Amino acid sequence: MKEPARHLGSESIRNQRLERLKEICKTFSPESYRLIDNNRLAVYVIALLIENNLQATQESITVALYLMFPEKFSLVGFSEYPDGERVTRTLLQLGKKYRNWAIGNRHVGYSLNDTGKLVFEQTKKLLHSPDITEVRKKTPKQRTIDPDVVVKEIEQSALFRAYKSDAQNCPDEFSIWELLRALPYTPKGALIERLRNMTESAKASGRDDIVDFLEWVKARFSNVFLEEGRKE
Questions:
Q1: In a domain, 42, yes or no
Q2: pLDDT digits (tens, 9 = 90+) for 3-12
Q3: Looking at the structure, do residues 17 and 124 belong to the same domain, yes or no?
Q4: The domain spanning residue 59 has which CATH number?
Q5: Per-residue model confidence (pLDDT) at position 12
Q6: Total domains, the chain
Q7: Please, is 75 exposed, middle or buried when counting C-beta atoms within 10 Å of its C-beta (0-12, 13-18, 19+)?
């Protein structure tokens, strides 16, 4: 019996995704990551996927961790397969209740918060310089955000310019993602946090006009910020 075309199409997409993961997820030598904890390795993978315009789903993270760090993420006794349960526990540790380095869940995917991005930079240095040991167990402190810099970035966005020029009814569909510096599949929690940080910066700079703009953004693009399972 001939296989339905839709099944063949889905299989093709999966194969393309796997080939893309194999292309970007090069295996590190065991010596380079043996002393780095699993949480930091997961942070590194999440950032790598996002940098390469791939959605950081739990499935993609599982495969990527196995490809890059097989000694830590292969199934015990069956080293040719990834250990999905270990990845699940690791991603749980990245959440707000524990490390607080990432936002998201297995249903919507994952992204890094500001501290997680600093951990990524730290981990990248550790992977490429295994002799560095003094910072392995220290979480880097988050840099202080300059409110004036944030306000300037908002003013330079296409969405703000449209807002100021009374083109509010027909903003470009990509303008919201430029403003938020995010992608459509970025977890809602990360988008809400980004909007909150921008609003706090505008208030700190005494820019009521920017605060009004961000309130308009929140209302105009309410579907972007509405978390799954919640109703207005």
A1: yes
A2: 555 454 556 6
A3: yes
A4: 1.10.10.10
A5: 64
A6: 2
A7: middle
